[in-house]
Amino acid sequence: MTQSARTVRRTTTLGLSTAVQRSKRLSKAGLLEWMFTRAFSGLVYPQIWEDPVVDMAALALKADDHVVAIASGSCNVLSYLTAAPIRVSAVDLNGAHIALGRLKLAALGRMTDYSTFRRFFGAADRRENVAFYDGEIAPHLDAVSRGYWEGRGLGGRRRINLFAKGFYRYGLLGRFIGTGHLLARLLGGNPRAMLAARDLAEQRQLYDRHLAPMFERRLVRWLVRQPASLYGLGIPPAQYKALAADGEDGILGALRLRLERLACGFDLKDNYFAQQAFGRRYGESADVTLPPYLQPQNFETVKARAGAVGYRQSAITAFLEDQPAKSCDAYVLLDAQDWMNDADLTALWSQITRTAKPGARVIFRTAADERLLPGRVPAAILDQWRYDEARSRDLCRQDRSAIYGGFHLYTLPGQVA
To answer: Which residues, 6+ apart, have CB-to-CB distance to 167 below 8 Å?
Structure first.
């Protein structure tokens, strides 16, 4: 491991420890929090699992908007560029996610045609990708990110080689999905069979045959009752508790409902989240649905606007503390608030309210179908914002990732002068 890679991981672990570890280390809760911090310290999301089409519908982005967003896999950060010529500040506690975002920016700066971009970040399984990195991207990548991608993983190979082996099969989430496939096959199911469906009716039939029976298996029922078994989904202990309380059948019922929605709620041909879940890659046909930033008609736009994206490894509250008052138009918090206690939420929303321009929008998701903020953030802060419940519920139903219980949209009343 290079010094830069060690620095990335050390900074990540420190930030996550502050965000996640609330209990005494030797307690059961403290041990679970420590395990999650360790699991989350490397690459987690090769692809983000929030639908950017829903995000853009909620945010109604316009030229010159300043968007502050948690980076994760950067699929959303780059997809927002297709909506308008905006400025994006992408922040993340996880240094591997920052390195991934900066790799994408450096690649866009060097790639002149869509086919190379699609091969690298769409297929992500060709030896040519590594050669292109070495010859074209690496000399233009910042030292920390280059140190990360050229550092060696547990297998002894440079991390950039993941783009020759099927990048989306790796990271914590990619390996979790792979383990789920293996477990399903051992128990008589086959998630990949879902991709053979020609319409919603066949999707339902294949789900009932290959996936629904898994939730009746004793091993599966035992596994989902163990919080650590879901760390691959990026679910920390606090979020696990919220998810377990969301419905009558606890965590098992919540997971079954969301997998059913992913498998049966949207046409699989139009849902790249389902393609990743059931096929462990994006589809290859010319008309396959991809994240907006990877769609051919958006390549030139994303390439031209990518220079307006900046990355910083930081907690989002700390980042906002450094921003001027009334300087931000939109905030994308993903599900980060599910990790936070009341003091953290108050600190975050104090900074959001201070830095927000009139008309600013805030979006976030929650594991459970709950408002989350009322009663936890002081009314003096929260009452300045308008919550659009009907619009939030409608957009949640449209989210093709299908894994969250709630989508939430808050707006600061007033018009930008």
So the answer is: 46, 121, 124, 125, 174
The pair of structure tokens assigned to 349 is 């929303």
User: What's the pLDDT tens digit per position in 50-64?
Assistant: 999 999 999 999 999
Q: Which two tokens stand for residue 126?
A: 């060709």
Give the pTM: 0.89
Query: Can you tell me the distance from the alpha carbon of 196 to that of 2, in angstroms, rounded to the nearest whole number?
Result: 44
Burial of 164 (0-12, 13-18, 19+ CB in 10 A): middle
**In 3D, which of 31, 46, 5 has the Cα closest to residue 280?**
46
List Cα–Cα distances, 291 to 61, 163, 276, 296, 392, in angstroms. 17, 18, 12, 10, 21
Closest by CA position to 19, among listed 375, 242, 246, 345: 345
CB count in 10 Å sphere of residue 245: 13
413 band by pLDDT with thresholds 50, 70 and 90: very high
State pLDDT tens for residues 244-267. Answer: 666 567 778 888 888 999 999 999
Return the HEC string of the chain.
CCHHHHHHHHHHHHHHHHHHCCCCCCCHHHHHHHHHHHHCCCCCCCCCCCCHHHHHHHHCCCCCCEEEEECCCCHHHHHHHHCCCCEEEEEECCHHHHHHHHHHHHHHHHCCCHHHHHHHHHHCCCHHHHHHHHHHHHHHCCHHHHHHHHCECCCCCEHHHHHHCCHHHCHHHHHHHHHHHHHHHHCCCCHHHHHHCCCHHHHHHHHHHHCHHHHHCHHHHHHHCCHHHHHHHCCCHHHHHHHHCCCCCHHHHHHHHHHHHHHHCCCHHHCHHHHHHHHCCCCCCCCCCCCHHHCHHHHHHHHHHHHHEEEEECCHHHHHHCCCCCCEEEEECCCHHHHCCHHHHHHHHHHHHHHEEEEEEEEEEECCCCCCCECCECHHHHCCCEECHHHHHHHHHHCCCCCCCEEEEEECCCCCC
Tell me the β-bridge partners of 152.
158
Contact 251, 244 (CB under 8 A): yes
Q: What are phi and psi of 389, to 5 degrees?
A: -65, -45
